[in-house]
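Example 3.2
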Amino acid sequence: MTYLRTFAPWIVYAVIPSQHWQWSAAIALVIALAGIAQQIRAGQRWDALIIDIGSAAFFTALTVLAFTDPDTALHPYMPAISSGVLALIAGVSLLVRVPFTLPIAKQTTPQEFWDQPMFIRTAYILTSVWTASFAIGCIALTALAHSSSGLRTTVQVLAFVVPVLFTLRYVAHIQAKAKLLGQPAA
């Protein structure tokens, strides 16, 4: 459930009703900062915290905006912007060659597997799926910015659930494939 910890600020922000967006942004910021502090105390390297750091930066800016201009014209677009920011953060993790799923996987995988090509390739595939899901969510949420909040919430949830399900199934597939081939897998 490391993914749950990583995305906890975004989940909290998504599920608190939009009329309380100032407080949901502030709570998400506190959760993001607490997550970073916890990970650093646990010895996590900075390059493994790209989602966490990006989350803290986004929720800092959002909290400032939400409290200084609570009636901003951007408010209906914040779900889309948040998905777009996640797509950007995940995409940057691919560009800097540290797919955000790699350090998450390392937390539950023995170190002898970390340099295996299949392990690294799996992280790139998973991060690409997460990036695509967030990008698609951004586009859909932009189109739905002025529709019912229930529909927007459903799209936001799907932008997380789809890659979670893919991650679970793909990792199981890779582990079964490695076992069949007699290779180590994470």
